[in-house]
Amino acid sequence: MKRALMVWMGLVALLFALAIPVVHRAFARPAPADHPNYHDAMDELRDARKKLETAEADGYGHRDRAMHHIDAALDECSQALAALH
């Protein structure tokens, strides 16, 4: 009787041990996505800033303001990516 109880307890312990990975997968959070749209937008913003830097005319100060807004947009995208991860 005592031996049968020990065998059953061993089997139950083994089943619990084997169930740990299954339970872990069921409750695990998915890995964060790469968010390619944000990365693409940031690449486009960087390209736009480079084009403005090499522009011959400054547009009476509008080029500098545009580059400032691009820098702000890049910062916002970076913060968004940080919040999403």
Walk me through this protein's architecture.
With 85 residues, the protein is mainly α. Helix content is 79%, strand content 0%. The protein has one domain. Helix 2 packs antiparallel against helix 3 (62-84). The two termini are 55 Å apart. 0% of the residues are buried. The model has no long low-confidence stretch (mean pLDDT 89).
Features:
3 helices, single chain, rod-shaped, 85 residues
User: Structural class of the secondary elements?
Assistant: mainly alpha
Terminal Cα span: 55 Å
**Net shape:** rod-shaped
User: Helicity level, as a percent range?
Assistant: over 70%
Provide the succession of SSEs.
Answer: HHH
Low-confidence stretches: none
Task: Estimate what percentage of residues fall within beta strands.
Answer: under 5%
Query: Overall pLDDT, averaged?
Result: 89
How many domains make up the coordinates? 1
Largest sheet: none
**Count of β-strands:** 0
Assembly of the depicted chains: single chain
Radius of gyration: 28 Å
Number of helices in the DSSP assignment: 3
Outline the fold blueprint.
Elements: H1 2-27, H2 36-53, H3 62-84
Helix pairs in contact: 2-3
Outline:
This protein has 85 residues and is mostly helical. It has helices at 2-27, 36-53, 62-84. Helix 2 runs antiparallel to helix 3 (62-84).
